[in-house]
Amino acid sequence: MNTSTFERFGGLSAFVAGLGGLAYSISFVIISQSAPEVSDVLTPLFLLLGGLLTTAVLVALYSRLRETDAMFALWAVLLGVGAALGTAAHGGYDLANAANPPSLSTDFNNGLSALPSQIDPRGLFTFGVAGLAVFTLSWLITRGSQLPKALGYLGYLSGVLLVIIYLGRLIILDPKNPLLLGSAALEGFLVNPIWFIWLGLVLWRGQKIASKHELGA
After folding, report:
1. What is d(CA 105, CA 205) in angstroms, rounded to the nearest whole number?
2. How far is CA 198 from CA 13, 49, 51, 145, 192, in A?
3. What is the pLDDT of residues 41-81, one digit of tens each?
4. Confidence band for 208, pLDDT divided at 50, 70 and 90
5. Three-class HEC string of 162-183
6. Which of 57, 118, 150, 212 shows a CA-CA span of 20 to 30 A to 86?
7. Mean pLDDT of 118-143
8. CA 155, 159, 161, 167: dihedral to nearest 10 degrees?
9. Is 185 left (phi over 0), alpha (psi -120 to 50) or beta?
C-alpha cells in the first residue's frame, strides 16, 4: 500500500516535471526573446522545481527497477539524485541572481563573496550526469519487465542528447551551433517532456508489464 501510494506521488511528480521541462524550454528559448526579465525569473524557477520533483521520480523508479538489477538501479538512482540536486542548485543560483543581482564592488574579495555558489559548471549535473543516469535507467527498463520497453528506448535517446548538450556547452560554447541547438531543441521540446509525462502516467496508473514467468503461470 505504501509503495503504491509513493508510486502515484512519483508519477504525479514525473508528470509535473515533464510539463515543467517543456515550460523551461519555452521560457529559455521563446520568452527570453520578448521578455528577458520574465525569463530570468521563470527559467531558473522551472529548473529548481524540476530538479526537486525528479528526486521523487527516481525513488519511485528504484522500487521497480531493483527487481531487474538492484546494484545498477541503486547506482543509477544515486547519479540521478545527484544530478537532480545539482540541477536544483543551478536553478537556485540563477534565481538568486535574478532576485538580487550581484555587483562586484571595488573590493574584489568582498565582491566574490557576495556571489552565490555555482556547482553546476556548463551543466555538468543538469545535462552530463543526468544523461548518464537516464541512459542507465533506460537500460534497466529495457532489460526488465516492470516498465514498457519503448519507454526505455526513448530514454536512450534522451540520455544521449543530454550528454551531447553537456559536451557542446563544454567544448563548442556557441549556443547557435547547429549540433548544440538541434540537440537542445529536440531534448527540451520533445524527448524529455514526453519521457517524463509517459513515465508519470505509467507510475500513476500502477502499470506493470507482466513477465514471462507471470504470463505462463
Report:
1. 55
2. 12, 19, 18, 16, 10
3. 999 999 999 999 999 999 999 999 999 999 999 999 999 99
4. low
5. HHHHHHHHHHHCCCCCHHHHHH
6. 150
7. 91
8. 180
9. alpha
AA letter at 9: F
Enumerate residues 6+ apart whose C-beta is below 8 A from 23. Answer: 42, 46
**Cα 27 from Cα 38, distance rounded (Å):** 8
